[in-house]
Structures are given as structure tokens and as C-alpha cells.
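Reply to dn_fold:

You asked what the input looked like. This is it:
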Amino acid sequence: MGALQQDVLNYFDDLFLDFDSAANNLNIHVNQLYNFKRTGKIGFRTLLKLSQFFYKGNYHELMQKWCLKLTTTESIKHAFEYAAIKRDIPLLEKLLRAHRTDSSLINYTQFYQVIYNYMLGEFRPYELKNYVNTLKCGKDKELKVLKDIFYCYCLYFDNKNVTIVEKAADIEKEIYELSDARKIFFKECYLIRLSEVFAPAYLYLKDLPKARRHADFLFSSNLSAKTKSDGYYYMGVSFIEEDKGECLRYMRKSADEAQKTNDPRIAAEADNTLKLVEVFYSYKEKREIPQNLPTSEDMILGEKNLFLRYFRRVKGGSLPDLAEAYSTFTQEFNFLFSSIVVGDMIVAGLDPLIAAPIKDIQLNYKGEVYFEKDFISSFTYSGGSSSRKFVN
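and this is what came back:
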């Protein structure tokens, strides 16, 4: 009997649980558990649900152990994605170290090594494309989809928001073509990753309902403190022109969640971003930009940080300066910040009637990713509340 098989069966015995009650609670077919007892074979998503059944909200503690006891190539591939999307850097490091010499996993270890280095901040975000371009997928459909999603990450760092959205339909199709029941976990993870790029893309295109839907999806997904922090950030910025109170409320929640990551870079970034948003509102009231702003060295995106760019471009305050700022953001299809600049132009003397047509630009673009929040259930313990049974 394998170590993982023995471990799982021991939990059933120690907690006086039977297979029927577990299957009923987790909405899985009971035959999966009997088959596991007989053969030791179990789908990764079923294993994840069992960890939630045994440990409830602390299930990740169990998964950290079980991921290192997996022996099949397919399950180890799932473990790599699990560790990465949970942003568990120590677990991902252990998996990379354990399987680095496995020739059947070479494309996975190389791919997740890049993700590992990216999460550690070993290179600037805008350098990510240099590494993504070198990654090989072979005939692996899951890796191909993941590479396409990471290509969207690169587009985001290049301010290519329209291209991201237009690529959405193609990536969504690729995800749903992963029709094998064993791929459901990958499909859920990839849809979450899509939201990580579509939330900011829709935000800066000023398609706020869609931005808020993806932002809500991120902080409701129960994935990690970093994911929740990002979701709160996108939600907060979506209110920047509409509701100062709501904007700052979400920005503070973002900073609070960032503290829980135990990553000093992430925590400092969120704190500095909150300061920049507070300065933004101060500038709107007093038309003065203080000298003690966080600097580009303080921000992960450096000179490309949008708030720092905004302050640099509007500090002159004259209509020509503001018109240039408006032109820059519009050319980047950043309609949220171009709209903000139009507000500054009105304060500087531009006729509101002339400003109105250029303030709220709506762009038509092809492609839309739409999926219900409850489709993503791998990371939430439901306690048997759903009638849908899964087979992985």
C-alpha cells in the first residue's frame, strides 16, 4: 500500500468516517473511494476535496503533505499547478526539487520554475515575456493553455488591454476543449488565472461591470491572500471616479490581505498603492502633489506604475500638459485614466460640453469570458450543499 493511500485511509479510521458519508458530503461517487482503497488510484480533485472534508478550512496543511506523496505523472502535474495557483512558494520549491530529473515532467519543471522565479521577484514583471517565449509545451494541451494565459500576463505589462480581451474567446475555447473529466481541476485553475488578467484589462478599458465581476471572482475564490488582495485592488480602483468611500474601503482591504501573504514585497506594494490612492484624492481636492510620494523604486512595476505615471503627467496642471496626458493614456486604450485626466481638464478650464464626448469612450471588441462563480468549486468546501457530482 502506498504512503498516500495509507495516509488517507488512516484519516477515515481515526475520524470514524465511512465512505458513504464522505461521498455524500463531497458530492462524489462512492465508487471512487472504494476504487482508491483497492488500487490506490485517486483523482487530484477528489484528493483535494477529501482534504477539505478532513481539515475543513485548514485543508491546505494536508495538501502540502499529500502533494509530496503523489507518484503518478498526471497527479504531479496537478500538484505543480495547485502549489503555483495557491502561491505556496515553499511547496512549489519542494516539488521542483523532487521532480527536476524526471524526463516525463521536464516541460512542467521548466515552466513552473519560471513561475516560481516570477513569484519570488527574480525578474521584473515586464521581463516575463522573455522567459515565456522560451517555454516548450510539446503536445501537452494543458501547458499550451497555460502558456497562452501567461502570454496575456505579458500583454498586461505592455499595456495591451484590448489584445488581452480579444484573446479571451480563443483561450476560453481552449479551456473548454479540455473535456476529459480528469482535467476539471486545470479548467478551474485556468479560469481563475483568466480573471487575474481580465480584471485589470476590463478595468482600464473602463468596462467596469465586467471588471467588477472578475474582481469579485478573485476575492471570492478562496485561493490565497495575494489573489484576494488583487481582487480588492481592482474593485477599489473601479470606484475611483464614482465613490471615494468605496474605493478606499476596498483599497484598505487589499492592503490588509497583502499583509497576510508574509511577503514583504507584496505587503509594501499594497501599502504604497493605498498611499498613492489617498494622494490621488488629496490632489483632486487641493490640486497639489506632495513631495513624499512613494517612488518608482518602491513599486514592483517601477516607472510603469500607473499612479506614478499619472502624477508625473498632470503635475504641470496646464491644459496642454493635461491634453498630452490624455493623449498618452488614450493611445494605450487606458480609458479609465484618460477619463480621470478629462476631469482634470475640466477643472483647468475645458468646457464640460466639449469634454463630455471624450470622457467616456466605449470601445467595441470581440471576445468575452463568461463563467459562473459557482463553477469554480475546487478551493471551497461546500459540505455537500451542491447536487452536482464530479468524477475527478
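Residues 384-392 have pLDDT under 50 and may be disordered.
Hope that clears it up.
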